[in-house]
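Translate sequence into structure tokens.
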Amino acid sequence: MQVKICGITSVEAAKQAVASGADYIGFVFAKSKRKIDKDKAAEIASHIPTTIKKVGVFVNEELETIRDIASTVGLDYVQLHGDESPAFCKQIGYPIIKAFQIKEKGDLEKLTEYSCDYFLLDSPAGKYRGGNGEAFDWSLAKGLTDLKGKVILAGGLHVGNVRQAIAEVGPVGIDVSSGVETDGIKDLQKIAAFIEEAKQVEKGD
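Result follows.
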């Protein structure tokens, strides 16, 4: 099970995620309480091994800005969390994770319009696109056999429900941000516990 720890804003949190076995580290470059600028993200990224993929999260951002940040930070993936069109996604020039907010079954039909490396299924937007700490109805995402190996699950995940989420949806990866925080700050113990719990699933424990 691939695990992405998103909303990283410190070297300490990044190192904990790496040491605990995270597969992806996420930086948020959109409006959010976890927003980070490209220079700080680049500094943190310099401490992340090349084996760990770096993901930049954007919402309805200009194409040139995305490319500039991706180049500066050394991003491996660009995650688009806004209303970006399929054509826009193709122009970026980086592997794409396209996020979709799932309120009803019909929302999943939009996925067929996009050609992406991964589809991230998230809960409906709150104050910000993503990172709101609320889960959507996972039963809506059952049986996505056409997308096997391409679905990343997000939204309201934490150490207490991640096994159930994986069992219900069967994603290739999971994405967590607020679920590994205490008072809005990344909690090193929660990061370690979450990753361990998620990784235990594939071991059958």
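Note: The domain at 2-203 is CATH 3.20.20.70 (TIM Barrel).
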